[in-house]
Amino acid sequence: MPEKNILIAGLGLIGGSLARTIKSGHPDYHVAAYNRSQAPRYFAIQERIVDEVSDDFDALAVKADVIILNFPVQLSIQFLKTLATLPLKDNVLISDSGSTKLEIVTAAEEIFKGKAIRFIGGHPMAGSHKSGVIASDELLFENAYYILTTSALSQPADFEELKGVLVNTRAKFIELTAKEHDAMTAVTSHFPHVVAASLVDNAHDFAAIMPFTENLAAGGFRDMTRIAESSPDMWTEILMSNPDNIVYQIDQFSQKLADVKQLMLQRQSAEIWDFFDNARKLRAQMPIHKGAMENFYDLFISVPDKSDVIHEVLGYFAGHDLSIINIKINETRVEINGVLQITFKTENDQATAKRLILENSSYDVYQ
Ligand SMILES: NC(=O)c1ccc[n+]([C@@H]2O[C@H](COP(=O)([O-])OP(=O)(O)OC[C@H]3O[C@@H](n4cnc5c(N)ncnc54)[C@H](O)[C@@H]3O)[C@@H](O)[C@H]2O)c1
Ligand SMILES: O=C(O)C(=O)C[C@]1(C(=O)O)C=C[C@@H](O)C=C1
């Protein structure tokens, strides 16, 4: 008998990454995964990320000692409602990985009222703009903060138990109330995604006036907007789940932009210098977590607009066993060329691929 039965419900980026860390940290545990669609289930079994997969949530849930829900928040609340109707194991411990906490913790307190069910809302503060189990990574949470929320549904011993299950995430666990969590993550995560998407939208609008604009988006624009490629499903849910805190950040930020605008209109160069210098110093002091998803390495290849170009470029890699995570053709405003974006899992593979493309073609390659 395995020491614990774990259910990972939702085999996407986060569910897949958690499953990998739990399995590698506890080879004796039985890790099962629920996913509605077949492809991620098949992938997870093939890759030995989990021991068992099924599209029958209820059947897996009743066998589980620990259940972690890895869905958009509203869907996780639906699954909590289902769990409340099932004959679960006596001492089952339920958690989730959603990006907002007040809504689900409040719902859990209501749904599980009077039941012997332990619930701890969780949120690993690491991720990616990529989705799906194929992008999952055992190192994703290393050194990241992993927030566990305090509520009426859990005791200190429950936190220790969950941390034990998640020990191989190598994350830094902290306890916060759901309210504290939502206020702070609005500043450092939710609102920045609104800004990134707005920057892309703004550049696209301006390109209607000056079509070459988007070609001049270089490193600065790329660093500011990587997260604009994130899942719209996930981010709509997050904005709908934490509106007050995010709207507050929009108001604060609008005032900051208005202040800079005034300094510029009044040509106050000394104050503008201070503004940048202050930000530079503050940024340098921030304990910004370098997530393992820095381990996604993109190449951008300027390719001619022809149908077999992906096949052609992949042909250059033959016999090199490169770990490709994602391939995408981005249209450009200029109709002669497209940009082929290939994402690799390692820096080595990225460098090998770049060399092979440059050796075999005359295409420009950017990182
Ligand atoms: N991506 C990140 O950077 C990140 C980081 C931390 C936390 N989170 C949170 O983790 C949770 C999962 O996000 P993810 O990035 O793994 O997303 P994902 O898109 O990679 O995975 C989502 C999972 O939900 C399942 N799902 C979606 N709709 C469904 C439905 N109607 N019925 C059944 N299953 C359904 C999908 O099959 C998939 O398994 C979200 O709440 C997100 O806010 C995301
Ligand atoms: O690295 C990214 O792409 C992310 O957006 C990850 C990120 C964030 O840093 O905002 C996004 C949502 C989460 O809930 C946690 C982490």
Automatic annotation (TrEMBL):
Domain of life, per lineage: Bacteria
Keywords, sorted A to Z: Amino-acid biosynthesis, Aromatic amino acid biosynthesis, NAD, Oxidoreductase, Tyrosine biosynthesis
UniProt keyword Oxidoreductase present: yes
Catalytic activity as recorded in UniProt: prephenate + NAD(+) = 3-(4-hydroxyphenyl)pyruvate + CO2 + NADH
Domain ACT: 298-367
Enzyme class at the top of the EC tree: oxidoreductase
GO biological processes: tyrosine biosynthetic process
Pfam families cross-referenced by the UniProt entry: PDH_C (PF20463), PDH_N (PF02153)
Pathway: Amino-acid biosynthesis; L-tyrosine biosynthesis; (4-hydroxyphenyl)pyruvate from prephenate (NAD(+) route): step 1/1
EC nos: 1.3.1.12
Start and end residues of each Prephenate/arogenate dehydrogenase domain: 4-294
Molecular function, one GO term: prephenate dehydrogenase (NAD+) activity
Family label: Belongs to the prephenate/arogenate dehydrogenase family.
Matches recorded under PANTHER family: PREPHENATE DEHYDROGENASE, PREPHENATE DEHYDROGENASE [NADP(+)]
Protein name: Prephenate dehydrogenase
Species whose genome carries this gene: Pseudolactococcus laudensis
